[in-house]
TrEMBL record:
Cited SUPFAM superfamilies: Class I glutamine amidotransferase-like (SSF52317)
PROSITE patterns, per the entry: PDXT_SNO_2
Keyword terms: Glutamine amidotransferase, Pyridoxal phosphate
GO terms under biological process: pyridoxal phosphate biosynthetic process; pyridoxine metabolic process
Keyword Nucleotide-binding: no
Transmembrane segments: none
Pfam families given in the database record: SNO
Organism whose genome encodes this protein: Streptomyces echinatus
Protein name, entry field: Pyridoxal 5'-phosphate synthase glutaminase subunit Pdx2
InterPro entries cross-referenced by the UniProt entry: Class_I_gatase-like (IPR029062), PdxT/SNO (IPR002161)
GO molecular function: glutaminase activity
CC terms in the record's Gene Ontology section: cytosol; glutaminase complex
Amino acid sequence: RNAFGRQNESFEAAVDIRGVDGDPVEGVFIRAPWVESVGAGTEVLAEHDGHIVAVRQGNALATSFHPELTGDHRVHSLFVDMVRADRTPESL
């Protein structure tokens, strides 16, 4: 938390996310953390200024920014697609 600074240092930045087509997503970073490292089975989806800001493991998705604060629903669509793809008959 606060890896990019305090709340008054919040910012927006374009973020290219693997799996999200089109233009970069506008990331709203508010008291945002970043990911220091990832282990086996975790996929880095995006970086900003050399820091990991979006990761995926199975049907779990984590971002350092707030995709819900923009009108762009592509990150949410990615998450829904991930969950749908991970469904098995046993999970229904």
